[in-house]
Amino acid sequence: MERNTSLPASREKRYYTSHDNQTEVVVNVYQGENYYADDNLPLGQIKFHVPPKRAGEVYIDIRFTYDINGLLEVQLHTPETGQRQTIVIQKEDGSMTEAEKEAKLKVFEKLKIHPKEKEENQYLIAKGEALYVQSTGALRDAIGEWLGYFTSLLEGQDEGKIRKQRKKVEDAFAQLEQILQYQGVPMGMNPYTENWYERDPKEAVIEDFEAWVERHRGES
User: Fold this and answer.
1) How far apart are CA 139 and CA 183, in angstroms?
2) What count of other Cβ atoms lies within 10 Å of the Cβ of residue 51?
3) 147 CB-side CA count, 13 A
4) Which distant-in-sequence residues (6+ apart) come within 8 Å of 209 by Cβ?
5) Radius of gyration of the chain (CA)
6) 27-50, pLDDT tens digit by residue?
7) Which pTM was predicted?
8) How far is CA 40 from CA 72, 91, 111, 204, 213, in A?
9) Cα 189 to Cα 141: distance, rounded to the nearest angstrom
10) What is the distance between the alpha carbons of residues 32 and 42, in angstroms, rounded to a whole number?
């Protein structure tokens, strides 16, 4: 979990076995940013059993969930077997009662939903994909760029950044949707500049949208 991440936060990453017939994965948890793991502060260790198969055929999802009080939950899960294993690491043992710890772990459960599984994000991705199918050429390229940008945000799992940027993506898709509606319209009012067209309407709205993209690109 990167420095300056807004807390509480939850991150999940997938790891694969590295040896044939591997039956166990040892996960060492450290705090710190030094290049060599041993130069960081050791927090705990988990030994996790996996089915013996060829290297890379078995994977484990490891989720780290952390809050401002120094409570860290590390959860391992193998989808192939359904096996789960969890450890809870407390910054200062005894600083929290068991009831307080249980209450915080319940809050953690709400953080464990991956952003790409949340309804509002799925809706936005579906809208972008629909616009992509309906469009061609430069317009399709623009939609693809925004889809890729938002997808990369979801994979980053930074809820604060996703919330901040989702409005820009929603605005971009609304603009793109309007462009599609104006394709083939007669000479008339430009919906972006509120000026009368002095050029082909379809080309005009695309060019004005591209200018809109440039203005917003530096704000990400």
Assistant:
1) 11
2) 14
3) 18
4) 139, 142, 175, 176, 179, 192
5) 24
6) 888 888 788 888 888 888 889 889
7) 0.49
8) 16, 15, 26, 56, 42
9) 25
10) 9
